[in-house]
Write a structure and sequence with these properties.
Strand 2 and strand 3 form a beta hairpin. Helix 1 runs antiparallel to helix 2 and helix 1 packs across helix 3. The chain has a single domain, classed as Gcn5-related N-acetyltransferase (GNAT) (Aminopeptidase), CATH 3.40.630. With 156 residues, it is of the alpha+beta class. The strands form 2 sheets. The chain has a 4-stranded antiparallel sheet, with helices on both faces.
Length: 156
């Protein structure tokens, strides 16, 4: 089981790497090579560093070598923008542990709704945790048509 902790500024480059590895390693089962390339091109340490410092909470999972291997974030309004794991972590319970800590935090802070825009793989993950699809979203990403799903979960 991976150890979880809050984001630290030195994590930004690791998060960008995890993002690219996840998109390139997991994405091809549901998306075309062109879609995967357009999606992966959005990664940069600067982007993750800036977003991690914008008020959201980011949890990071560490592997046995104490290196970041997965991450999840929660914005103040209940939006989950990122949930990414290195492909080797898929199916190990790491993403589930990250999500459990996020939902517990959301409940403690009084959020009544979580929502996200999920890829095909993430859609399957979130459905298992009580989210519902509110709509399929088809859009252009760096000139390539791609899709994801608007999803939400009501917290009681």
């Amino acid at each position: 089981m991976a150890r979880l902790r809050l984001y630290q500024p030195d994590d930004a480059a690791h998060l960008a790497g995890i993002f690219v590895e996840a998109v390139r390693g997991i994405g091809p089962s549901d998306y075309s090579p062109e879609q995967v390339q357009a999606w992966a091109a959005g990664a940069s340490a600067d982007r993750f560093g800036a977003q991690a410092g914008d008020g959201r909470v980011v949890w990071v999972a560490l592997d046995v070598a104490d290196q970041p291997c997965a991450f999840i974030d929660l914005e103040a309004d209940g939006h989950i923008d990122f949930l990414y794991c290195r492909p080797a972590e898929a199916g190990t319970g790491t993403a589930a542990a990250l999500y459990a800590v996020l939902e517990s935090h959301a409940r403690k802070t009084g959020l009544t709704r979580l929502y996200t825009e999920a890829s095909e793989a993430a859609r399957r993950f979130f459905l298992k945790r009580g989210f519902v699809v509110t709509q399929r979203r088809d859009f252009s990403l760096r000139g390539v048509m791609i899709h994801n799903y608007a999803m939400e979960k009501r917290l009681s």
